[in-house]
Amino acid sequence: MRLRRNSVSALVTAVAMAAFGVSAATPVASGEVPGRTETVYSTSSPVTSVVASKVTLAVPLPPGSPHPQACDTLAYLRWRAVDGPRSSADAERVLVAQPGVFEGAGAFDSVARNTVALAADSGRYIEFWALDRRSNCLEDHTGVAAALRTGSFDTAADYYFGGAEADGRRFGGYAEGAATAWLRDQGLAQTLRDEYDVLRIEFPDQAVRKRKVLCGGHSLGGFVTGYFAEWDFDGNPATTDDAGYNQCSGYFALDTAIQAGLSLRGLQVPELPAPIAGSVEAASWQLDTALPVLRLPAVINPETTNLLALAGLAARLSPDGVNDLVRRLPDNPNVAATLRTLLSRDAAMFVTGQPDVRDLNATNEAVLGAILDDNSQPLGFLQASVGFPVGGPIGSKSFPLPDSIALSPLAMGMFGDAPKVSPTVYHPDTLYRWADYDDTAELTAPYTSPTSEVTAIGELARSLCEPPLDFTEWYFPTRLSLDLQQTTAPSFAGHHIHLDGVDRNPILTFRSSGGIPVADSGSPRDEVIHLPGYNHIDVLTAAARQNDGRPEVVSARLAAFATDPA
Fold this sequence. Notes:
Strand content: 15-25%
Number of helices: 17
Shape: globular
Helix content: 25-40%
Largest sheet: 10 strands, mixed
Radius of gyration: 23 Å
């Protein structure tokens, strides 16, 4: 069943605004905290019992490379029950989440709403916060925000691709060179300090933090949380009020593990002895200076991650519109190579560019599905289970790898667990549409089934474009990815002290069947919940009601964990 949300958007927004007594553009009163602002944002979500806001805190960066003034603030998204307490201090507990790689706070929108709503249904009032990295201050969401107000995708396309003005500004392009040099300092230590500062500012009393806060994250965010648990913020092991584990009453892992250091199942990155660790860290600093933003020539870079938000916007504004994004895409090598990498059916199509993927006739929902669905997207960390293409012939997809390799143990689960398919007809008379996760009559073997589809395509589209802190991160700091692999780096020695920090609190871990094959935390206090049919993105976006008629598992178990972590 397809649920059209545009018609209820105004009602949902009115309910949320009435709860706060403000309009969508009006900052919420910030209490006694200087430099704090909070602004409710509108949504088309069908979950009307939850209100969401963007919170910013004035926390200047340490002296270093020149950076925009906007980057001297920390930001997070806050979700709370409409009929619950307005002050976070009065909430029963607060789940605080670190995002994954190339991921912003907006990615948590669905799981946060569903979790808070389920807790409120049982009379328990909790909150969910999703942190945003400072690097996202370089992003320009003007075009997307303006298009959501006008209801026209052309507003965003003209802004990003045509040089048009929106809200009094023009798109200045994607930052590079000197404009991103300051990101070389945005590694693990600064990321952990930023989380600590958010918690300290919002809950000044350490005992309150310890009682109320649950720390966790998705994907890479689980490893960041592992370091947070083991970190000592004043560098004095004798004073533990500032220890990371004493800021949280429990941890939660969304298709990841709460542990310091990256690891895959059966492949643990070894700890390096101090002399070697120093040389490796020095080499990583050189790489980071040369490449402060993690980007590739195609598929993963600021332009392509913005295109994901635009694909969501097109599907959100006009689900059955045809190729609104595709017909407006710029003709440049990055976009061309990205489309061919993601959507080519076989190696010959990738090499020759024939048929041209831009010639495919598809609805905006089908385009979004083709980019991110587990039956099409080749990379496991970008996959969601959102339905299946219909309306035309479908064939097996063998690029970049045939299923015989991609689904074998040799691939270590890095390409998901679903067979890959592709449209086979590129003709104006054939229009590919999208069958939603709960269009059960269309979800047939051998490629899919109702039990392996869990996210509504409309929910994914909404999450990609509506939150003011976006789903996809344009500028991921290389420094952070390098730091996470160096548990014994000399620069960490004064703070990475409490190596039993993860074991000091209970852990709730969610493991998707088609997600990233990370190793378990190894903690005796870790409860692992397996999620059949889920992929890596689904743990954030799965629909509140599943095809078996039950509430969504991740949000239901998170709500229960928040009310009783032990």
